[in-house]
Write a structure and sequence with these properties.
CATH topology of the largest domain: Thrombin, subunit H
Oligomer: single chain
Strand content: 35-45%
Radius of gyration: 16 Å
Strand order of the largest sheet: 2-1-5-6-8-4-3-15
Helix content: under 10%
Order of helices and strands: EEEEHEEEEEEEEEEHE
Structural class: mainly beta
Distance between the termini: 15 Å
Length: 228
């Protein structure tokens, strides 16, 4: 069921909300809801996206974000307001300047489980994970460009990205020849069997850059949940 709350919003608000939808921290423009996951230790149901989307590029000690901060659907950049809070910031992997980062990833806890579902819009549920390899055909659903298809063209890529005016170096990344636009950050990248292979967080030219999903799930201590 779809509810339209504000016709002036760039993205209409929908409940329940699934991967591929607009989402963002109170202090960010926003990006894409990646997936529903469960924390291995607690089995908490959580929302996955980028640190720079739902945790404001925090390293955990800089005051840019703190646990419990509101996360909106649609994002502030898409017209979200306080009535649009869908989750609270729960956990993140710190983004560290002057070091080699592996992921741009964070988690938020839904304020109501009925507000979210696990199925990727237009693709279906995530069927586990797989290692991204050069030549692998992949897909993603982003807040801005929707469903697009492409191919992994490089593994083990190292690059420096500017986020919120600060430079961060990332190592062991996947480079994907796939259409993507601003706002697609956070899109989960899957293979033709709907296995997660990467977490999109940046684009250079017509190329998307994604964290290896094994780094994301390992550092956050999560696995994917289906049919919620």
């Amino acid at each position: 069921m779809e509810r339209i709350y504000n016709s002036k919003n760039k993205e209409r608000k929908r409940y329940p909300v699934g991967p591929g939808s607009s989402i963002g921290h109170i202090r960010t423009y926003g990006g894409t809801l990646s997936a529903l996951v469960r924390e291995k230790r607690t089995r908490e149901l959580l929302i996955l996206s980028n640190n720079h989307v739902i945790a404001n590029c925090t390293n955990g000690c800089d005051g840019r974000a703190r646990r419990g901060d509101p996360v909106f659907h649609p994002s502030i950049g898409d017209g979200g307001r306080y009535r649009d809070i869908i989750a609270r910031l729960y956990k993140w992997v710190p983004l560290i300047e002057g070091a080699e980062n592996l992921v741009d990833a964070a988690l938020a806890k839904p304020i109501n489980r009925n507000y979210v579902f696990s199925r990727i819009i237009g693709l279906g549920d995530i069927e586990g994970e797989a290692e991204g390899k050069r030549g692998m055909r992949v897909k993603k659903v982003g807040r801005s460009s929707g469903l697009t298809c492409g191919e992994i063209i490089e593994e083990g890529f190292k690059t420096t990205i500017t986020l919120e005016g600060r430079s961060f170096t990332f190592a062991d990344q996947l480079v994907i020849d796939i259409p993507c636009r601003e706002g697609d950050s956070g899109s989960i990248v899957v293979d033709n069997n709907n296995r997660a292979v990467g977490l999109l967080f940046a684009a250079q030219g017509n190329l998307g850059i994604a964290n290896r999903i094994q780094h994301v799930t390992g550092l956050l201590g999560i696995d994917f949940t289906k049919r919620f």
